[in-house]
Amino acid sequence: MNIIVLAKLVPDLVEELTIDESGAALDLTFARMIINEFDDHAIEQGILLKERGGGTVTLVVPEFDGADDVLFTAAAKGADRLIKITGDFIAANNHALAHCVAGLIKDSQANLILTGVQAHNDLDGAVGPMLAESLGLPYVGYISSVAINDGKVTIHKEYPGGLLAEMEVALPAVLGIQVSEEPPRYVAVSKVRQAMKDSSIEEQDASDLDPDGGAAVGRMFQPEATSHAEMITGDPEEVTDKLVSLFKELGVL
Amino acid sequence: MSQDIYVLIEHLQGRVADISYTMLAGAGELSKAVGGDVVAVLLGHNAKDMTGNFAADKVLYLDHEKLAEFTSDAYQKVLTDLISKDQPRAVIFGNTSIGSDVASVLSVRLRLPLVNSCRSFTNDGKYVSQICGGKIMAEGELPVPTALVTMVPGGYPAEQGQSGEEPPVTEADVPALDALRVTLSKYIEPEVSDVDISKEPLLIAVGRGIQNQDNIELAEDLAQALGGVVCGSRPVVDQGWLKTSRLVGKSGKYVKPKVYLAMGISGAPEHAEAIIGSDTIIAINMDPTAPIFNLAKYGVEGDIFELVEVLTEKVKQEKQPA
Amino acid sequence: MEDGERIRKCLQCGTCSGVCPFGYFMKFPPSKIIGTLRADIFDLVLKSDGVWMCVSCFACTAFCPSQIPITANLMTRVKEEMLIAGTVPTELQVALANSQRYGNPMGESPRKRADWISGIKPEVNLLGKTKKPVDVLWFVGDYASYHPRVQSATKALAKVLNALGVDFGILGPEENSDGDSQRLAGERGLFEMLAEKNAKVFGKYQFNTIITTDPHAYNAIKNEYPRLGISFPVQHYTEYLVERIDQLKALMNHEVKARVTFHDPCYLGRANNVFDQPRALLKTIAGLELVEMAHNHTNSLCCGGGGGGMWLDGFQWEKAHVRLSDWRLREAVSVDANILAVACPYEAPRFEDAAKTMQGADQLQVRDIAELLAEAMGL
Q: CB-hemisphere CA count at 13 Å for B228?
């Protein structure tokens, strides 16, 4: 099995986000970038499939501050090939990324391509389905389980309320991972440092990053709270007394 | 080409999903600015009777046995055909397991611009999307010629997308659906041996703030004292501290209780969209900037570990006969 | 394995396993682990998860008749192997990943690390801003910086230092976790990474000595950093203050009428032999009656926070259904203490948490020594 995983880095929401001077885009100069959580699950799913059925896992990451760390950590987990796409991805949207990655991997003969089902900065759509279409491959998203059998893959697709759909998808295919079958494994810092010595990252140039496909943004802003809760204050005694009265008022006590 | 707004209706196992009504409501608002009709697009098999309460000017119904339940490939083929022919002003999809499987593919296939995670439309027809966990809003002109839009709940109540009058239904042609690359084998139901939280009137919800499994007991005690049911957000369920049937959120259940007591829950969008139907949300959280306080009617900036047991005791005392 | 030779001296007397507070929950307590090494069946230990009950309290090390450094060289090494194999409880995993990414196990933004200083006059010297040379570098630590309960103790200490006219500065957002608990939880690589980062920051500023709020940071900087070539004179704040005890006493104008018992932090007491200084400080406070709990000094009971214990609460609860902090608190209650005095940032939250659900503990207060000193000084 030749598995390719596409992972990207997104702004870490632990830090404050700021909007740049144009007023229509995020200011990423001081933003800390972190791996998209769903892509982390995609990497884990790829490694699990390799551990179960053999094959190779190639991780592709667009150039961002922190990309090297993501790549070496994946190597420490078991990824075989590490590819960093060089170029200016700050202004690139998912359409551009999908088009670029498709160009780079179309001759790779990958059986299965995995990526996170979504990322929190997906303003122009999700990269997985776009990559699939650019390669002419089928796509299913919100995946929580993957089993490969004979030229096809059996997947579980998540719907609300805990409902799952079992579907068969012809290979090669692109899958949007919601959650890996096991939680992403921990890898000791010493192992990652070892991977930095033992593995190398191949750099491939981004062909063209045409951002067409999204909508123009007129302005970006931080939402004002349209309403705010009426705060109940006091020490624990007072607060709990007030909550009891509130429960009575609301008819639940 | 038209100025019509198409809405891809979502349904599963014979039930129309709430997001469909949110989209119809949004389409209704958008059509005021844009001028065209709201057209509900229903793909299915023997599913005409689902259309009764759609708030739409008309319904386009596409019937085929391979459309009985959703699969990405089939829906993509049908919609490619439909959108190429009709060229509406916009097509609205849900930002869901159904809509998201389709919208971005069509964006590339038909070379049509896509606006993701849209919450609402302004009076002059601009889209307003939320990204970065709800921390950032993006607003802009609806792109031309045909805008593909995925919507999230929260901007409009489901009721606004429902109507007492049944819209007229037109059947449209379905292209050949051979050689589909994705097929549905079966559904796997969640375990039913548990309460259905979407039907409970009083929910005590716990989030990451509960910190560990054994503290769930605190919530259970309070729930028992009040006569409610414990549920939780994704981190709690993913850890296995609560059963999946108790998950409240985008990938869990949407709830509409009388009272939703959110303890140690930050209020991230995936959770928020599932609880906005509640009558009254009361939130307890240590972080005064937690987004949940913008959703809740009442809030306490406090430590659940200082409050919950005391609260449970008082509730028990209240319930004792005088 | 460093000092590996010492393990050969094991008498298999079982004292370590007996004195270990969680020994009875481990399939392989310390003496048994040594047994498996000798019988060449050590891989059995790696298959069991009992080692995560170890809170690195140092009791085994303190009582071993052969003086084998069990905590650091056996238990920690087993944890290191477990980590490399990938068998880690999720809670701990999160704390380790956070430490790596944000420089603190809680996952808080580094930019907010000095937010606690607001309101203190004179303003606490943030070395990154003022770049002035100082006499004392105060290494504040993770919980002291971010945890709301512990911040009151941190502020109290800042006020005490100000009142004494100490010329001190803090690193604020540039400070990373000392990494000691992460090291003892098996993440040697992470510890080294954090130490390297801190060393770089230390190198930027001029100071004569370091003081720490946290015994764990004290232990790291005193005993572990020098092995990495990072050497600075360091004291725990109690040691530093006791050297100025007369000055402190002169500034005291309030009584603290209470029966107080002191909990020896494992990494101050047992691990580094600092027992008398905290007690001396408490005795300067007028009205304060100091009593000892049944376990004190070397045989003190651990609060359960060390060695990763702070981040294994759920895991340890599920195995044991007892908490070490409960045990310790019961001792405080049984000597009729009004106040349980602590000197480590892990403790106040742990003991206050335990007090919530313990009968007879509702009147018991938990206060850091810094808070008591500040109260006595009217600050």
A: 27
Q: Among candidates C277, C176, C303, C187, which has minimal Cα distance to C230? A: C176
Task: Find chain C residues with C-beta within 8 A of A193's C-beta.
Answer: 189
How does residue B240 score in pLDDT terms, banded at 50, 70 and 90?
Answer: confident
Residue C100 makes CB contacts below 8 A (sequence gap 6+) with: A189, C190, C193
| Buried-state track C58-70, b at ≥16 Cβ within 10 A, e below 16 | bbbbbbbeeebbb
Nearest to A188 among C83, C101, C107 (CB): C83
Sign of the torsion formed by the C-alpha atoms of B23, B24, B28 and B30: positive
Is A45 touching B (CB cutoff 8 A)?
no
Task: Give the distance, in angstroms, between the CA of residue C362 and the centroid of all CA atoms in the same chain.
Answer: 25
Closest chain C residue by Cα to residue A183? C90
Length of chain C, please?
Answer: 379
Contact C279, C257 (CB under 8 A): no
In the block, tokens 């259905």 appear at B196
Nearest to A188 among C102, C111, C187 (CB): C187
- Phi/psi region, residue C273 (left: phi>0; alpha: psi -120 to 50; beta: rest), is left
CA-based end-to-end distance of chain B? 72
The tens digit of pLDDT for each residue in B56-111 reads 999 999 999 999 999 999 999 999 999 999 999 999 999 999 999 999 999 999 99
DSSP H helices, B156-278, are 216-226, 234-238, 269-275
- Shortest distance between the Cα of C328 and any Cα of chain B, in A, equals 20
pLDDT for position C356:
67
C-alpha to C-alpha distances, B303 to A44, B203, B211, B294, C109, nearest whole angstrom: 35, 19, 12, 18, 20
Q: Is B110 on the interface with A (CB under 8 A)?
A: no
Query: Which residues in chain C have Cβ-Cβ distances shorter than 8 Å to B286?
Result: 148
| The pLDDT of residue C2 | 53
Say if the Cβ atoms of B101 and A231 lie within 8 Å: no
User: What is the amino acid identity at position C337?
Assistant: A
A84 vs C317: CA distance, rounded Å: 43
CA angle B215, B216, B220 (to 5 degrees): 125
- Spans of chain C below 50 pLDDT: none
What is the three-class DSSP state of A157? strand
Instruction: Give the tens place of pLDDT for each residue, A128-137.
Output: 999 999 999 9
Q: What is the average per-residue pLDDT within A222-245?
A: 88
- How far, in whole angstroms, is CA C44 from its chain's centroid? 31
The mean pLDDT of A55-77, rounded to a whole number, is 96
Q: Which of residues 300-329 of C touch A (CB under 8 A)?
A: none
Provide the number of CB pairs (under 8 Å) joining chain A to chain C.
Answer: 39
Task: Give B309's contacts in chain C (Cβ within 8 Å).
Answer: 356-357
Q: Residues 6 or more apart from A165 whose CB is under 8 A from it?
A: A156, A157, A159, B69, B70, B184, B186, B187, B188
Q: ipTM value of the model?
A: 0.90
Are C107 and A185 a contacting pair at CB < 8 A? no
Contacts of C314 in chain B (CB under 8 A): 211-214
pLDDT given for residue C107 in this prediction: 86
Tokens 């895991």 -> residue: C315
CB nearest to B214's CB, from C90, C317, C356: C317
Per-residue pLDDT for A80 more than 70?
yes
